[in-house]
Amino acid sequence: MFDRYQAGEQAILVHLDFPDENAREDLQEFEMLVDSAGIESLSVITGKRNTPHSKFFVGSGKAQEIADEVKLLDANVILFNHSLSPSQEKNIEALCECRVVDRTTLILDIFAQRARTHEGKLQVELAQLRHISTRLIRGWTHLERQKGGIGLRGPGETQLETDRRLLRERMVNIRKRLEKVEKQRQQGRRARERAELPTISLVGYTNAGKSTLFNCITKAKVYAADQLFATLDPTLRRIEVEDVGRAILADTVGFIRHLPHDLVAAFKATLTETREAELLLHVIDIADERRSENIEQVQEVLKEIDAGDVPQLLICNKIDKLEDIEPRIDRDETGLPIRVWLSAQQGIGIELLFVALAERLGKQIVKHRLKIPPQYGKFRGTFYQLNCIADEQYDEQGNCLLKVKLPAREWNRLVKKDEAVIESFIES
Fold first, then answer.
1. Quick check: 203 and 283 in contact, CB under 8 A?
2. pTM of the model as a whole
3. Is 70 in contact with 92 (CB distance < 8 Å)?
4. Angle at 272 between CA 270 and CA 273, to 5 degrees
């Protein structure tokens, strides 16, 4: 057994090309993952295979090449840009005498570094435990309380069984705590539903610029950096959209190709904000050569979390990195906005995004001419709070004559409170 690596160590990177598209990974993205984890890359070993080697994943010759490179450069961890089986991991460790970490474990480690909230830390730990539970090996036989042979028999459990039991107990404990947090989230969602506030969720490939756009729109100070998985914990902020009123904008974790299933399962509670949103803002790094592949990967993850049917507005971000691209709104044949071209970093085209949001969310707008008697002056203040007054005048009797324009849900909420009074204000 070898010590688990810690961020800041020096690594040998291993990447193989496979003809099967489903097994293929991106080397440039892998190097960004390694950099995001705070690990120094000493060397990159590449190769080609039709199928993974059953024992070493890379083949015996390539495995020996990795072992020689580890000794030559004095590396203390080998990072694979692929998911390894527990036996492959163990065999390579034994040959190279060095800790081996596969792509899934690396992503889990980055998530562990980024988690800030109590819920985020619990979710990452649950994902890590699920992953580790498949990788328990007989590495601590000297601690076992059960052995064969005369004088060595005992009623105790093996260390492997002890590890598994402790893991199961810890996972059960975390799930119970996450259920509590999820109930609190549901209460918040129900409160927003009662207030009829629409939720807009930012989704997209990692490092597409979601947090930068979130900060630009909300003036929040969410951590944003040019690295993968800069955002892990979801953040909610209230925004004002013309003809719609108040809405909730949610910033969520970025997606990546072949996102570990343990992570998707652990973060399902967090991603509920995405699943139950009225509109998804799918942020795309339009300057990325792999943007088409990234869009496909995001759509796959959205299907996996049951959010594939939620309406989307594509946000083509980072237009400042391209030449001769102006901010604009693309529409479908019915005139509905489907794409907005902007730069969140430079603050270009943000006003067009709000125009598109108003059109996508403000489909049901009601307009009324109201005549409010002096004794009901408090309702005038209510309409001012809703920021929906288009015109205001007074007649000779002191009645307040208002022209109001507001979302149907806001109007229905007012009517529900004082139906008879509000209806009496409407002029035919």
1. yes
2. 0.67
3. no
4. 85
